[in-house]
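COURSE: Structural Biology Practicum
ASSIGNMENT: Worksheet 4, Part C
STUDENT ID: 0417
INSTRUCTIONS: Below are two proteins. For each, the amino acid sequence is given first, followed by its structure token string. Answer the questions at the end about the second protein only.

PROTEIN I
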Amino acid sequence: MSVPVHQAKAELFRTTGHPVRIRVLALLQDGPKPVRDLLTVIEVEPSNLSQQLAVLRRAGLVTSSREGALVVYALSTPDVAELLAAGRRILGCLLTDRDDLLTQLRSPGHR
């Protein structure tokens, strides 16, 4: 039996509803990255990052590959980056009264 579209969408948004996962997806917009580089930027415990990467991989939002001893992650489709961009646009519209957060959202370093 297939899952209704609204249920599949809800699951997609639940999957992306974690700050570490959002940060990973944002970092991968610039291209594939090894886990060690993600750890340096995100600054979470390796086990926590591993758990979040596994969730993203199971959901099909990222792919992983081995390059020698490194495990490298990438977005599975450019549509994931478009989803993040849409989220930024929506937040920009909703947060006009929160100038500080709006400034952060508009800065190039915060995707």
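PROTEIN II
(use this one for the questions)
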Amino acid sequence: MDDFGAMFLMENGQPFVTPQSTPFCLYGKYEFNSVANGTAQHVERNIAIDANYPVMVFVKTTNTAQPTPVIAYRIGGNIYIAGDNPYGQSFTLTAYVFAVFPQTLPPWGFAIWDATGKLVLTNESRVLTDLQTVGTPGDNGGINIDQTLQGSYAVAPCILGSSTWQVTNSSAGQPIIINITAYAGARFDGTNTRINAAGNRIGQGSPVYGTNTGMAITAINTAAYD
């Protein structure tokens, strides 16, 4: 450690440093209520953001008994966010968007600029920290993740696996194949958050095939951002 300067510690006791780098800070928190879409409940939104800003998104849902799959990806200057509850349960989708973007100089406190002169951190910045891994990579990861955490958590949207179901068509007598994709889901009930796989359709008939990415889920405790 140098003999002079400044050091910042996070709540977990770990030092916070930005050596020639810019931290991800909260760009915005967005809440959307679902609307009926056939027999399902659906959310679909675009969030405008500068195409030059690196972005990370975390999502949670509330008010559902069944898991709701969520997705998020970037299309140029927009972040596309969607959620779909195939059980027809209405829900609220909350998205936390973090980005590397110029900060606003506060009226007082501290401020840090990078080598290019861009303001990257102030005492008012809400920095993305304390990422948590849910699940273990491998056979116990992916679609086999089912963990309940105390408090409010949001997950980085990802695909955990898929399954194929066969349903017999009673009128024609021919089998119908249904493909279901399993996404990461995070359901907050006001006290705890259940994180597990959420299918984009309801499985019917007999399962005939499945895949598991075996990946872990990245989550954040949203208490610092609510």
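ANSWER KEY EXCERPT:
Q1: DSSP finds no helices and 19 strands in the chain.
Q2: The domain at 8-122 is CATH 2.60.40 (Immunoglobulin-like).
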